[in-house]
Amino acid sequence: MPYTQTQASPQDFPDRYDDWRLFEGVRTRRIIAFLIDYAMVAILIIIAVPLIFLLGIATFGIGWLLYAILTPLVALTYVGWSVGGPSQATIGMRMAGIRLKRYDGRRIDFVTAVVHAVLFWASAAIFMPLLLAPLFLEHKRTLHDLALGIVAVRSQD
Fold first, then answer.
1. Distances, alpha carbon 38 to alpha carbons 21, 33, 45, 138, 142, in Å
2. How far is CA 15 from the centre of its chain?
3. Which domain holds residue 46?
4. For the purposes of burial, counting CB atoms within 10 Å of the CB of 37, is it exposed (0-12), middle (13-18) or buried (19 or more)?
5. 3-state SS class at 98
6. Over the stretch 116-138, which tens digit does the pLDDT of each residue have?
7. Fewest CB within a 10 Å sphere: which of 99, 110, 126, 142?
8. Is the dihedral of CA 118, 119, 120, 122 positive or negative?
9. Residue 4 falls within a domain, yes or no?
10. Is residue 14 part of a domain?
11. Sign of the torsion formed by the C-alpha atoms of 103, 108, 111 and 115
């Protein structure tokens, strides 16, 4: 029987996430991963700025309109390709030794990764204390993890 629920929970898959070692140090590792990824996005933006400048010259100024959407475009592409890719983790997450997984066992695709990032930034922009949810929720999950049926676990490399 195929899985049809839109939001999975630990009770749906009790054998998969009952090992406490999967979640040991995940909160701290997520903070470290965020800082590394923030630096990675900044580096990518620094690389993109002169490229857009040259594109603007080639297009008689029209390319310079990309500056208005540069930061979200770079950040969401970075997250989508890295989390939606084979490693299921950004470079910062890989360096911190964590990855994202779905409760239902399916792979995280590009769109889900982008939505996860957008929900993170929305929760940070709207009400920063929402990011304190991992202090209280099972498996140290954030609210945007809960909304998408995702959990951050330690990598098993």
1. 27, 8, 11, 26, 18
2. 25
3. 20-154
4. buried
5. strand
6. 999 999 888 887 777 777 777 77
7. 126
8. positive
9. no
10. no
11. positive
